[in-house]
């Protein structure tokens, strides 16, 4: 009976070891899930930051870079459209803004019958 009891103890010990390994594996899987969740959150934040920075960069590129000659001549209408488009306005909305500003007598918009003159401005009030 000595061999049987030693064999039984060895089997019980191996079963405890297997159970412990299962618990460890489950803990590792849960730890992996938590780490993956954190990484997914970080990726989401990085994507949002990228989109925001890209928008800021595009708006910066669309801003007119003034020279003294440009200040006198005003802003090219295409540059104004690009500036407003970078701020999320559609072509129809931009045309509507120009017409409304001309009707209201906004001094930044002048139409002499042949040519549209737009003053160099940030137009932040048109957002």
Note down, in words, how this protein is organized.
This protein is mainly alpha-helical and 127 residues long. The protein is built from four helices and two strands. The protein has helices at residues 2-62, 68-73, 77-86, 91-104, and strands at residues 109-111, 116-118. A two-stranded antiparallel sheet has the order 1-2. A hairpin with a 4-residue loop joins β1 (109-111) and β2 (116-118). The longest helix is centred in the first third of the chain and has 61 residues, at 2-62. Residues 66-71 have low confidence and may be disordered.
Quick rundown:
Helices cover 72% and strands 5% of the residues. By secondary structure, the chain is mainly alpha-helical. Strand 1 and strand 2 (116-118) form a beta hairpin.
Indicate the low-confidence ranges by residue numbers.
66-71
Shape annotation = rod-shaped
Query: Structural class per helix/strand content?
Result: mainly alpha
Strand order of the largest sheet: 1-2
Number of strands: 2
What order do the SSEs take from the amino end to the carboxyl end, as H and E?
Answer: HHHHEE
The main pleated sheet reads as:
2 strands, antiparallel
**Helix percentage range:** over 70%
Mean pLDDT: 84
- Whole-angstrom Rg: 34 Å
The fraction of residues assigned to DSSP E strands is under 5%
Count of separate DSSP helical elements: 4
How far is it from the N-terminal to the C-terminal residue, by CA? 91 Å
